[in-house]
C-alpha cells in the first residue's frame, strides 16, 4: 500500500461518489488509506471507483450501495466495511444534500428528505460504526457540516436544521468519548464549487433560485470566490490524520472568511 499520512488506515466515506466526498476519497487514497464508498447510487459509485483506481489499480476501493438514512443501513455498512477491510479507523459522514429553497416553499416531503439525507445518515452510520472504534481504542469521525449554520444563508433554514444537528451531534460525542481514543470533528464548508455544480452552471440546468443563492453566498465571502473541493478535502484529511490527535469537538470552517472567530 502507498505510504502516506493515512498509511494502513481504513476509511468509510458516505456520499463518496461525487462532489466533496469524491475529493476526500481521492485524497485519502493518495495518502495510503483503504476506502469504502457508500451511497444509494451503484452506477455513480462504479464510475467513481473506476476513476479512483485509474491512478493506482493496487488501491483498495470498496463500494456499498444502500439508502443510509433508513433503519438498519448503518449496521449493513459496518458489516461490509468489517468484511472487506477488516476494520474501520475513519468515518467521514459526507452524505447529504436536500432541498435548498425558501422555507415557505418546503413541504413535509422536502423537509423529511433534507433531514433524512443529512442528519439521519450521520446518526445511522456513526452509531453503527462507533462500537467497533471503541473496541479498537481508535477512531476519527469527521462530519461534513455547513457554513450556513453560522451565517444563516438564504434558503437554508431547513437544511441548517439538519446540519446544525450534525454539528451538535459531533460535539456531544466528543465529550462523551473523549477518553476512548476517538475524536469527533466537523468540517463546515461555505459554498463549494463541485464539478457537478460547475457542470450545471455550464449547461444552464441550475435553477434560477439556486443560482441566486450561490451568488449571495459568494458575496458573503471576503475572498470573493467559492471553496474548491480540494480545499475542503485537505481539512478533512487533517482531522482524520494523526496530526489532529488532540483536536475533538471542533468545527473547522473552510469558508474564505465568511464568518470569523
UniProtKB/TrEMBL annotation:
Its main location: secreted. GO terms for molecular function: 3-oxoacyl-[acyl-carrier-protein] reductase (NADPH) activity. It catalyses: a (3R)-hydroxyacyl-[ACP] + NADP(+) = a 3-oxoacyl-[ACP] + NADPH + H(+). Keywords: Cell wall, Oxidoreductase, Secreted. It is found in: Secreted, Cell wall. It holds the Pfam family adh_short_C2. One of its GO terms (biological process) is monocarboxylic acid metabolic process. The keyword Oxidoreductase applies. Belongs to the short-chain dehydrogenases/reductases (SDR) family. PANTHER family: 3-OXOACYL-(ACYL-CARRIER-PROTEIN) REDUCTASE. This is 3-oxoacyl-[acyl-carrier-protein] reductase MabA. It comes from Mycobacterium helveticum. The lineage of its organism: Bacteria, Bacillati, Actinomycetota, Actinomycetes, Mycobacteriales.
